[in-house]
Design a protein that fits this description.
Blueprint (H helix, E strand, L loop, with lengths): L28 E9 L8 E9 L7 E18 L3 E3 L3 E10 L10 E11 L5 E8 L4 E4 L1
Antiparallel strand pairs: 1-2, 2-6, 3-5, 3-6, 3-7, 4-5, 7-8
């Protein structure tokens, strides 16, 4: 298989069959999201540090993080070259990075900079799903 194509699930009543959605991938990318600055600390927005760990044996040139929060957030900016794709407000934000100029090598860690969002007090990151779009691998934290 030369290029990975992510399977698509289409519900069909009366049928049942399973497909491992990360088939072809190696679960090689983890991205963590840590809130480091809040309006309670005197900052205008929440500032969330995004850090990746690539454990694959290949180079990763495109990544995606799907970040789920306990409250509705509004995307302000991603200070690290990422682009918000899809909705810019809600309890889930999707950020993508194109690192085609250099990539993330085998075993490397990568700082994606800071994601800035607005939200009511008490914001928490509930989960981050990282996806290596170069190879199709998925890992949730």
């Amino acid at each position: 298989m030369k290029d990975y194509v992510k399977p698509m699930v289409i519900p069909e009543s009366g049928c049942g069959e399973g497909v491992y959605m990360a088939s072809g991938g190696s679960n090689c990318l983890t991205i963590t999201a840590n809130i480091e600055a809040t309006p309670d600390m005197g900052y205008e927005n929440y500032s969330i540090r995004l850090t990746g760990n690539h454990t694959g044996d290949h180079y990763s040139y495109r990544q995606r993080a799907t970040i789920t929060f306990n409250k509705t957030v509004g995307f302000v900016q991603q200070m690290g070259g990422g682009t918000c794709v899809g909705s810019s407000s809600g309890t889930t934000l999707v950020i993508e990075w194109d690192l085609s100029a250099y990539g993330i090598g085998p075993g490397e860690q990568h700082g994606y900079g800071y994601l800035q969002v607005t939200a009511d007090p008490g914001l928490e990151v509930l989960s981050v799903v990282a996806e290596d779009l170069s190879s199709g691998s998925v890992r949730s934290v």
